[in-house]
Amino acid sequence: MNLIDGEIICIDKPKGWTSFDAVKRLRGAILRRLRMKKFKVGHAGTLDPLASGVMIVCTGRATKRIEELQSGVKEYIAHVALGATTPSFDLETEIDAHFPTEHITRELAETVLHQFRGAIEQVPPAFSACKIEGQRAYDLARKGEEVKLKAKTLVIDELELLDFSPKQIRLRIVCSKGTYIRALARDIGIALGSGAHLTDLRRTRVGNISLSDCLSIEQAVEVIKSAPLEFPDDFPQEQLDKIKAMAPAVD
User: Fold this and answer.
1) How do beta strands 74-82 and 196-206 pair?
2) Which of 44, 62, 114, 224 is geometrically suited to a Cys-Cys bond with 29, CB 3.0 to 4.6 A?
């Protein structure tokens, strides 16, 4: 493992963790292993705290590949509740309105989903990391301030109805970078003549990396702690001697 020249570590981010939490956990393990006080670690694509699944973490010089890696298409499995909305379009906030669902059939759902395949215009959620005059939209939304965001052009390559009931649908979505699945749930609810919000989201693929390629966070930490290390030729000898003189750190 060459953490300095750069490693790409694929993890299965658990539900309830922020992307920052996951990076912080791995960075801490790397700092302890390398006996360093700071080290560059980043991720190629944010996952909401309530979402789980594929997250790519880059170390050292591999952080230069973040833009390349996060541009890959994403695949998700989404559970969408019909007949109710929330301000955040997911379970972060409480239900704020109810709508009828009796008219929703599988045939109607299939017809509506067809409208969202291909290039679409999507307005990001107010509860998002988009910036408005230097401020994060979610900070403004949580203060109760009005948030107006511009629509963005996105591509939905695949949109498959996996399960259907008048109260909930399960979808498989393959889409471009920057797609908000919460906003897609909102728009599908409107198109169905009802309301909708996201109740569960799992990212199953980023580019060519799927869940089968991923480690749990604890497995990744264990690899960082115990894997044989390699170092670039320009790594300071004094620091290298210090690392070699000490056994791998233990949490």
Assistant:
1) antiparallel
2) 224
pLDDT digits (tens, 9 = 90+) for 76-96: 999 999 999 999 999 999 999
Q: What is the pLDDT of residue 244?
A: 66
Single-letter amino acid code for the residue at 53: G
Give the whole-angstrom CA distance, residue 205 versus residue 212: 9
CA torsion through residues 159, 163, 165, 167, sign: negative
Determine the Cα–Cα distance for residues 161 and 172; give it in Å rounded to an integer.
Answer: 7
Q: Is 198 left (phi over 0), alpha (psi -120 to 50) or beta?
A: beta
**What are the start-end ranges of the E strands in 46-151?**
51-59, 74-82, 84-85, 97-98, 118-122, 131-132, 135-136
Distance CA 74, CA 82 (A): 24
pLDDT digits (tens, 9 = 90+) for 96-127: 999 999 999 999 999 999 999 999 999 888 77
The pTM is what?
Answer: 0.89
User: Which one is catalytic: 48, 139, 187, 200?
Assistant: 48
The question of whether 163 is a catalytic residue gets the answer no
